[in-house]
Structures are given as C-alpha cells and as structure tokens.
C-alpha cells in the first residue's frame, strides 16, 4: 500500500539547544561500540546526512537484488522530497513527503528514536524523583555461538528474564529499559548485546552482578556497568541502537533477508517497576524541556522567528539528495546572532 501523507512529526533535532546535545563524558562508557557511536556524534550534520543517503541507497539495491521491489521503492521515496523550514543558517524543522517506516531506514530510525526519547525521558525523570533511584547503563553480553540473529536475540533475552527473577536483581534494581544491539564479527558470528538503563536502589558490588549474570546465562560474566550522570544523554545513547540496530554499510543480501524475517522482534522495552510506572504516567504531568521544544518546533511555520537567531524562517523545498549540501552551507555560514550564551 502506497501512501504519500505529509508527515509532520519529523522535527529536526537542530532546534535543540546546545546544552541538551552535550555528549556523554568519555569515562561514562568503557565499551568499544559506544566509543564508536561517540565518534559518530563528532561528524558534521552534512556528513551524517550523506551517510544516511548512502545507507538507504545500499539497502534499496539489496532489496532489489532480493526481489523486494516494494521495499526498494519505499526506501527510495522516503525523504526524497523535503520541506525545510530555515532561516538560511539554521534548520528549524524538516518535513518529508513520505516516510517508509522500514526498521533499518536511517531517516525513519532517527524519528523513531526521538519518539522514544520524548516518551520515556519525562517518565524516567518522574520515576527517579519519585523513587529516589539513580540510573546506570548496563551492557550485558553473551558468549558467541553459531546461531542466527533471531536465536542470538532470544538467547540473551531469555537470560535477561532469568536474571530479573533473581533475588539480587530485585533487591538492587527497580526496573528500567532495555534495547537490543546486533553486531557481526569478521567470522560472521552474531554478537548480541542488551543495553539496559537500570534504576538502582543502592550500590552493589559489580563482581556480584557478574556472578548473577553468569548464573543466568550459564557461560557469560562479561558486562559493563557505568553510572549515568545525565539521563537525557543516557537515554539518547541506548535508543541509538533502536534507530541503528547494526552496521548497515557492511550489510549483505543475506543479512537483509534474515532481518526481514525478524519482522516483529521487539528491540526496546521496559521492565520491572518502571514498566508499571510508565503505564500510569501521564504525558501532561511533565514539563520536560525537551518535550516543550519538540512541541515548539511542531508549531513553527514560515514567517516565525528562528529559535536560534530570531531571523524569519522560510520554507525551502528540496530533494533529499540536496540536504547534505544544504547542511554544508549552513555549517560554513558565519555564526549569526545566536541566542545569548548561557555563560
Ligand atoms: Zn524511511
Ligand atoms: Zn537561525
């Protein structure tokens, strides 16, 4: 089914103030993969936009090869025409003509990850205040076996279920969120990790947690645990794996075929008391800055003042392929009357 509804819920992150885009400190994460995504953060917007285009072209080619013509067509139309609300130097909002909603589409993934952040960040802040718990980022890994992606994901999720039933876990952790990350090594072995934001009731010895994970998996004690200082940054870090479950540029036709078979696998979820808290949490109860900004961007139209420099915004129509170049122009234009510095 083909639809060309004008999606209005894609709002560029460029309207967020610099403070809320602050990167997690290098010590926050130990893990290679996380370091990799920190490097990705350092790339310019134009570079990232160009990579998204390349990823989509690569996926569309693979889809054609598999005879998935409809998918290829959707990917090619997704974000192919854009309405860009800009002052010339900043981009306040991007509205695409069409969104494919394919799980591996990097443009749709960005929107999905923003939605998750808007949904869960206020709830996380509310939960932390209410229960006086502190957030940690826990990465759980498992031993490598010859198995497909689905088996690998099921194995780690089952282990996590067993972990949650253990007394230790219940005593120290009050729930949180989980997300799946898939990687594949040179030998074609799947590595599946669980990224968990856990709300800790009290401190515990990491060695005890390793023992617990070993008991739950039967053969793995490898994990990383780090406190999260900024919950917004921590959440952004873990939802990244939802928008980017794997390195698609190294993706072959077999990988795509396998991924298409995963269709309904959940990649993100909540657990424990946080899960129940989210059910009862009213979005209107919060006055979260990010949510407000998002609503603000939603209301922006041509003629409004640019949130970053107050110059009037105008609507620029362009093709998706022109966006990286437009980002380049905005990156190289001299800084305008950027909003008053906070220090
Ligand atoms: Zn898409
Ligand atoms: Zn501006």
Describe the secondary structure blueprint for this structure.
Elements: H1 32-42, H2 45-65, H3 69-77, E1 81-86, E2 91-96, H4 106-131, E3 134-140, H5 149-165, H6 167-172, E4 173-184, E5 190-200, H7 206-217, E6 223-227, H8 231-243, H9 253-261, E7 268-271, H10 272-280, H11 289-299, E8 314-319, H12 323-332
Antiparallel strand pairs: 1-2, 1-8, 3-5, 3-6, 4-5, 4-7
Helix pairs in contact: 2-3, 2-12, 4-8, 5-7
Bound molecules: zinc ion (2 copies).
Please summarize what this structure is.
Helix content is 45%, strand content 17%. With 343 residues, the protein is of the alpha+beta class.
Provide structural commentary.
This protein is an alpha+beta fold and 343 residues long. The protein has twelve helices and eight strands. The strands form two sheets. Strands 6-3-5-4-7 form a five-stranded antiparallel β-sheet, sandwiched between helices. The chain has a three-stranded antiparallel β-sheet with strand order 2-1-8, with helices on one face. Strand 4 and strand 5 (190-200) form a beta hairpin. Helix 2 (45-65) packs antiparallel against helix 12 (323-332), helix 4 (106-131) runs antiparallel to helix 8 (231-243) and helix 5 (149-165) crosses helix 7. The N and C termini lie far apart (52 Å). The structure holds zinc ion (2 copies). One zinc ion binds at residues 87, 89-90, 306, 308-309, 311, 336. The site of one zinc ion (ZN) has 7 residues, from helix 4.
């Amino acid at each position: 089914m083909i639809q060309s509804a004008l999606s209005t819920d894609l709002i560029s992150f460029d309207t967020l103030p610099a403070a809320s885009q602050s990167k997690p400190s290098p010590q926050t994460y130990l893990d290679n993969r996380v370091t990799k995504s920190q490097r990705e953060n350092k790339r310019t917007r134009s570079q990232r936009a160009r990579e998204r285009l390349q990823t989509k072209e690569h996926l569309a080619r693979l889809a054609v090869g598999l005879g998935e013509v409809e998918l290829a067509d959707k990917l090619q139309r997704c974000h192919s025409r854009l309405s860009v609300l800009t002052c010339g130097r900043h981009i306040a909002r991007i509205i695409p003509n069409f969104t494919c909603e394919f799980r591996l589409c990097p443009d749709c993934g960005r929107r999905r990850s923003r939605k998750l952040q808007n949904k869960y960040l206020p709830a996380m802040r509310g939960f932390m205040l209410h229960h006086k718990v502190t957030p940690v980022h826990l990465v759980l890994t498992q031993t490598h076996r010859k198995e497909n992606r689905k088996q690998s994901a099921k194995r780690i999720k089952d282990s996590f279920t067993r972990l949650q039933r253990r007394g230790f876990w219940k005593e120290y952790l009050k729930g949180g969120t989980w997300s799946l990350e898939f990687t594949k090594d040179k030998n074609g072995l799947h590595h599946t990790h669980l990224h968990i934001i856990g709300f800790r009731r009290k401190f515990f010895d990491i060695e005890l947690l390793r023992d617990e994970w070993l008991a739950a998996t039967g053969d793995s004690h490898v994990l990383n645990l780090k406190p999260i200082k900024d919950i917004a940054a921590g959440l952004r870090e873990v939802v990244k794996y939802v928008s980017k479950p794997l390195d698609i540029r190294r993706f072959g036709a077999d990988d795509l075929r396998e991924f298409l078979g995963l269709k309904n696998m959940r990649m993100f979820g909540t657990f424990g008391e946080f899960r129940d808290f989210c059910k009862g949490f009213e979005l209107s109860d919060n006055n979260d800055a990010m949510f407000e900004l998002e609503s603000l961007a939603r209301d922006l139209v041509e003629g409004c003042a640019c949130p970053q420099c107050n110059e009037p915004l105008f609507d620029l129509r362009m093709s998706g392929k022109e966006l990286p170049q437009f980002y380049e122009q905005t990156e190289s234009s001299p800084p305008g009357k950027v909003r008053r510095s906070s220090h």
